[in-house]
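Supplementary notes for students who missed Thursday's class. We covered one full example, reproduced here. Read the sequence, then the structure, then the short commentary at the end.
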Amino acid sequence: MILSRTSQYAIQALIYMATQPENVPVLNRTIAEYLSVPPAYLAKIMQSLSRGGILYSFRGKQGGFCLREGAEKTDLMKILTLVEGPGLTENCVMGLKICSETTACPMHEKWSPIKARIVELLEKQTLEKLAAAVKSGKYRLSELPLVALPAMPASANKLAAAQRTKGAAKRNGA
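Structure (token representation):
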């Protein structure tokens, strides 16, 4: 249960977004530059997180991504399950297709309690907690210092709010 590069980038990007002002879209290239990750790869991850209901995605000149309402309460396990798929915690540490109490691999007995503790830890860590730790200055996400984005013009905030409302209406069948 070692995190893939995709999961690492997803978590880092979401923590970064949780440190930024609410309801202000952040450009993919801004996040990619801050985290020193490939922008095209990050864009695919961000779209996946949008489809998974954690982010809003906005197109156009004032486009970008922002956390959906309540997304800061999302725990890392939910994010990892979204990125890696539901088999994340079910897969055998040695890669066997079938591994359970009755058909165990040589590592099963030792790995199961460790895996359970890791899942418990991930379920207790929310974006909000991790963003607060980064904002405190004690922890970091990259080699660069954390900076808040400059405030967007009021017209851009209105556009983002209108797009969120339109998206919510579409999801609710309006």
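Commentary. The helical segments are 5-18, 28-35, 39-51, 76-84, 108-124, 127-135, 154-171. The chain has seven helices and two strands. If anything here is unclear, bring it to office hours.
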